[in-house]
Amino acid sequence: MFAKILMMAAFFAVTIYIGFRTRKSAMDVDGFVLGGRRMGSWLSAFAYGTSYFSAVVFIGYAGQFGWKYGMAALWIGLGNAFVGSLLAWYVLGARTRAMTHHLQSQTMPEFFGARFSSPGLRIAAAVIIFIFLIPYTAGVYNGLSRLFDMAFGVPYEWCIIGMAALTCIYVVMGGYVATAVNDMVQGVIMLFGIVAIIVTVLSGYGGFTQAVVTLSQMPCDVPGMEGMQGAFTSIFGPDLFNLAGVFVLTSLGVWGMPQMVQKFYAIKSSDAIKRGAIISTVFALVVAGGSYFLGGFGRLAANQIAKTPTGTPVFDSVVPSMLASMPDLLIGLTVVLVLSASMSTLSSLVLTSSSTLTLDVLKGRFIKDLDAKSQLLAIRLLIVVFVVISTVIALIQYNSPIIFIAQLMAISWGVLAGAFLAPFLYGLYWERATTGSVWACFIFALVLICTNMLWGYIKSPINAGALTMLAGLVIVPLVSLFTPKPDAASIRTLFKESYRNLHDTKIDPD
Q1: Residues 325 and 42 sit within 8 Å (Cβ to Cβ)
Q2: Does domain 2-209+235-402 have CATH number 1.10.10.10?
Q3: How confident is the model over 393-431, as pLDDT tens digits?
Q4: Whole-number Å distance between alpha carbons of 279 and 85
Q5: Domain ranges of the chain
Q6: Most buried residue among 63, 127, 146, 422 by CB atoms closer than 10 A?
């Protein structure tokens, strides 16, 4: 216990120290929100990867989908690496940086407002972000708390309060640069930790080969395949349709998440984007691939996991149950690993939400004369507000037997990526995309996900989220054909000026 506490104390000390040392980089709004748009490839890639993967993935998703799909869950990790990381960087990275520089936009709502000449879109996007990042944040808290309870026996409430307070301190002090540097440190911990955990856990089940043999002998409980052996070691698992839904939500959805896309705003050059794409992909292969690979063996811990009163497995307890028999030092490392993943994601979420609400809603609308100093103060205050609200939601959710971590993320990503992915992608590549098509995409995502929460006509909220994203890719071009065209001359000038130096690796587009 002393060693575990010492590791946690060292982690907290380093985190606070980084926040203190980077405070000078957060003296103006651009520095606080985007690090002055001068972030290198390594910092940007680790910031992207650690914001992508948190306790939601390691505890919630790896546990639930490893249990449901067995070793086939590894496909989700591969999708996160090659679609959610590599392809996202190559398709979105350079164009996002170039156009946001030209439009001088610091947030995703600001991009929508400037690109589509619509202040209304900017406000609507900001409100959606602030509201629907909250359930995602609650899921991050939940995953971490279960691991703390297993390792230290610390009550859930104290886990949340400690994590929230630590995040507030270093983000408020150092802004984007503090989060990026901490992400680098936390990312290194995640890389080494996940490898050590996989080796140790599988050794406890007799090694990789024996673990696969044992898993292959477990009878399937998926409707229509009851009793079948080998389903959990097959290449596509026992439920390919729902596996595909998770693949789409977690891999393609990241293209529309504001806290992820904003990493491309801050990177310093197109050359750094090319290097960052490779670094980010390798990171995702190890962390996401390793998490889902480990979760795929979750049924080997079937006798240890918690159950609901109806006998249903508590999926969020699968991975903690697998880790419970590890040596104390490795449990301490695991706690630091998940804490690292969760802190990096949480810091990105609170910074994105607070800066969006300040710059896109309060500034110039509710508060006409909001100078730079007041903007910084407002962002810092809203960071605290956002953390408090998400903490309350997390406490309520934890005491509810209905929603697991994966479902919280599905609601958040379903609305955000469903509303933003297609408009953002077409906004970067297609001059003909219209303001009306973006409104249509926003409304469709909100209506589908919110009504599905109430009536559940799509049984899986994950499939509902995936459907929303894919539908947006059709809605935007279709509605654009029947709504007023943007001014041809101004939009052509925007694209020409934005992408003038797009492929020049030595000269920044700005």
Answers
A1: no
A2: no
A3: 767 766 655 455 556 677 888 899 999 999 999 999 999
A4: 9
A5: 2-209+235-402
A6: 63
